[in-house]
């Protein structure tokens, strides 16, 4: 059995009186794991804890074999970590090359020639090699996001923590990024928080769904998609009671519901369908408990 590169036991986080993460138990091993959840579920908070930016209020973490609560061990984690925050500031006057080179220097990459070679490698990985000499302020939003991603990839880190990496990327860049991340997942532990269920379906074997600071689902993507079988269907009419319902380009409606009618024309479910159903079931369960 592979030793987990991340182990969380009873990890919680509060902001004042508000509990944002509630006693999470989680093991992560190499590969690309998707992290889904609604706005405010606690995804960024979890990623910040894994990146040693934020300390948990309770519980224990072991990251790449080190304890982030110990300052020396925290440094060891940071040496092996690549982190793409949800929002990052940019030195606007720096070129893309200088920005990534600056981060590489902060990461203790002292030998200039090998550092520059690594900066060129990661800029090429995110498709910015031709734009390396442009200043950050003159790049588009998606191009700046790719520069931020390039800094996370420096040194092929053992742990890659990415907060919505595909936001603002065009379809070619998103597809190309999938290649980069699946490659990274061969040797590293990659955790990818996103609202793009297609990216998770395309890339990840495992998905974690966070909801109100708790893990609602942790398992295989295929198993989660399988839970939606029989709950997605096509019809000629609108279905007001459905969880989601829209008229597709073919002129027919596609419906998703926890309790579909009988004898319907079933459609192939997607991860998005399964995610919507999982969340709806959780709301129903909570209402049932409080009723
Ligand atoms: N510094 C902070 N002080 C107080 N509350 C905070 C702070 N940071 C986050 N929160 C709260 O913690 C909760 C979880 O936020 P978090 O950013 O982790 O969610 P998320 O799942 O990443 O959401 P999104 O999908 O919108 O990015 C939210 O209710 C948020 O308001």
UniProtKB/TrEMBL annotation:
<keyword id="KW-0547">Nucleotide-binding</keyword>
<protein>
    <submittedName>
        <fullName>ATP-binding cassette domain-containing protein</fullName>
    </submittedName>
</protein>
<dbReference type="GO" id="GO:0016887">
    <property type="term" value="F:ATP hydrolysis activity"/>
</dbReference>
<dbReference type="InterPro" id="IPR003439">
    <property type="entry name" value="ABC_transporter-like_ATP-bd"/>
</dbReference>
<dbReference type="InterPro" id="IPR027417">
    <property type="entry name" value="P-loop_NTPase"/>
</dbReference>
<dbReference type="InterPro" id="IPR003593">
    <property type="entry name" value="AAA+_ATPase"/>
</dbReference>
<feature type="domain" description="ABC transporter">
    <location>
        <begin position="6"/>
        <end position="237"/>
    </location>
</feature>
<keyword id="KW-0067">ATP-binding</keyword>
<dbReference type="InterPro" id="IPR017871">
    <property type="entry name" value="ABC_transporter-like_CS"/>
</dbReference>
<dbReference type="Pfam" id="PF00005">
    <property type="entry name" value="ABC_tran"/>
</dbReference>
<keyword id="KW-0813">Transport</keyword>
<dbReference type="GO" id="GO:0005524">
    <property type="term" value="F:ATP binding"/>
</dbReference>
<comment type="similarity">
    <text>Belongs to the ABC transporter superfamily.</text>
</comment>
């Amino acid at each position: 059995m592979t030793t987990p590169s991340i182990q969380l036991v009873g990890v919680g986080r509060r902001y004042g009186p508000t509990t944002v993460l509630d006693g999470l138990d989680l093991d992560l091993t190499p590969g690309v794991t998707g992290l889904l959840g609604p706005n405010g579920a606690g995804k960024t908070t979890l990623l910040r804890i894994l990146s040693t930016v934020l300390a948990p209020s309770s519980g224990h973490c072991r990251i790449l074999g080190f304890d982030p609560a110990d300052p020396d061990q925290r440094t060891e984690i940071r040496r092996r970590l690549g982190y793409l925050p949800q929002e990052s500031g940019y030195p606007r006057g720096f070129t893309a090359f200088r920005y990534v080179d600056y981060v590489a220097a902060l990461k203790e990459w002292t030998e200039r020639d090998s550092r520059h070679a690594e900066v060129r490698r990661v800029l090429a990985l995110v498709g910015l090699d031709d734009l390396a000499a442009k200043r950050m302020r003159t790049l588009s939003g998606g191009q700046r996001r790719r520069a931020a991603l390039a800094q996370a990839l420096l040194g092929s880190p053992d742990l890659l923590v990415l907060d919505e990496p595909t936001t603002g990327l065009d379809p070619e860049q998103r597809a190309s990024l999938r290649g980069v991340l699946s490659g990274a997942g061969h040797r590293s532990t990659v955790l990818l928080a996103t609202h793009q269920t297609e990216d998770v379906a395309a890339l990840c074997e495992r998905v974690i769904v966070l909801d109100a600071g708790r893990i609602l689902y942790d398992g295989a993507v295929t198993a989660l998609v399988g839970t939606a079988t029989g709950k997605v269907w096509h019809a000629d009419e609108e279905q007001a009671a459905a969880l989601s319902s829209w008229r597709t380009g073919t002129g027919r409606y596609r419906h998703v519901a926890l309790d579909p009618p009988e004898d319907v024309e079933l459609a192939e479910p997607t991860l998005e369908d399964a995610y919507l159903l999982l969340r709806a079931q959780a709301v129903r369960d909570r209402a049932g408990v409080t009723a």
